[in-house]
């Protein structure tokens, strides 16, 4: 019997998939050099032009699919491929080889594109190196048309399976049939890669960044892909399989009851009411928000639009997206987070400008980039304030570490108001402003920040990382990343007390807000809002409705005196076993 193997990657798209494997490896097209006669040159030109036109048509169809499934602004994901297809210097070089060396069209095209790709792969710039895969994809598509080959394995997936791949282009990804591809595991990619963004938009559970996984998996293996925790099991044993099948059944039950229970309030049995809202970053995810019974969007990650485009998005492009989101969610609120670029989220435009750092998570990112680039920042502010005329919009700023930053932000907002007034453009001047509390210094000065703002949202992912000085992506120290560390809980408590003492509400939008084990503690600490992925929102609501606030409050008072993370976790599990026995597996 084959032994179970477990691998860790990055939780790119939430959900659990269990099933057989289909490896997606790019079809290797063998091209043979064939000498032609001079009189055959026009015919080879014609074959090449036809293949280029058909490839262009294919890519335009893919662009339309992206536009329909995710949003018009995101069609630029394949723009680089179309641009390379239309590169006149490349086409001229191919035709020169056909005419001067009397090479057949497919051989000449392969030689030119291969050389082009190899040049890109040598570049220091990550963005330019990434374009090499676009060139490879274009080359394969054109060669398939020249040699009348089919599209490869993706079209041949005939039963539900988990796709395992080394890499995948957006144009491949958007072609996936969700009824057949139930999960995705990739060696490449991060949480903000195009692959991960599309997986979330298409609601396909995905784990990315799993080293050498393709070589470790056999064609007859069974795999569990846990998109919640970034874990992959190959040939799971019976206990693991039963555990995950139970979780899947649990999720299925929630989904079946979704429509009948989605409008029930997130309220404890003794009447403590919180707001449950959603974290998203793409217009294509709106359907999930509305279906899940979410009370608005607690975190809209505006940087995704910057990450998929080759240039910074214009004010009109942003306004169009923000207005669509605001109108569809109204009258519920949408909290837009100003673009959180930097760290592991480097846009094409930033990469081209050489904004690369040795310690990016402590460097030039988020609000620091905004304040250092007022033109770029004010473009986004104008788009958001204009969209505010069409819905219930709030605005918060990431990586705030000092009061001066909020004061400077407000100066820019005043300038934007003056510009919009002068232009006679409709906008909402009274948008609530908030800070994402994710740096310990912000929690420590929350009293001062609260005097300037209308709300706080606690971003636990970075708050834990910065409070404990742990890079959670570093395997050597990631075991030190503990959401229940007493210091983290004290920072959350400080933020809550400062916010409530100034009559402003305090929410949470980090992954901690979606951890069922921690929900009773967060309720007991008095959080006003939890914002989570719409996929897990129904489960969180059920947990909230199964709790009694007074018992949660006593729980919080007790564990906040504990000195170790282990004692806190042990006590929370005992609480769950006693009060929510149906959640015993969490």
Quick description:
The chain is of the alpha/beta class and 586 residues long.
User: How many beta-strand segments?
Assistant: 16
| Radius of gyration over all CA atoms, rounded | 26 Å
Average residue pLDDT: 88
Helix content: 40-55%
- Extract low-pLDDT stretches: none
User: Structural class of the helix and strand makeup?
Assistant: alpha/beta
Shape: globular
| Strand line-up in the sheet with most strands | 1-8-7-3-4-5-6-2
List the helices and strands and how they pair.
Blueprint: E1 5-8, E2 10-13, E3 16-24, H1 41-69, H2 79-85, H3 88-101, H4 105-121, H5 126-146, E4 161-165, H6 170-173, E5 181-186, H7 194-201, E6 206-208, H8 213-216, E7 222-226, E8 231-234, H9 238-256, H10 258-261, E9 275-280, H11 286-291, E10 297-301, H12 303-308, H13 315-329, E11 333-337, H14 348-352, H15 367-372, H16 374-387, E12 392-397, H17 403-423, E13 432-437, H18 440-444, H19 446-450, E14 455-458, H20 460-468, H21 486-501, E15 505-508, H22 519-525, E16 529-532, H23 537-545, H24 549-559, H25 565-579
Parallel strand pairs: 3-4, 4-5, 5-6, 9-10, 9-16, 10-11, 11-12, 12-13, 13-14, 14-15, 15-16
Antiparallel strand pairs: 1-8, 2-6, 3-7, 7-8
Report on this structure.
This protein is of the alpha/beta class and 586 residues long. Helix content is 47%, strand content 14%. It has 25 helices and 16 strands. Helix 4 packs antiparallel against helix 5 and helix 22 (519-525) crosses helix 24. The two termini are 29 Å apart.
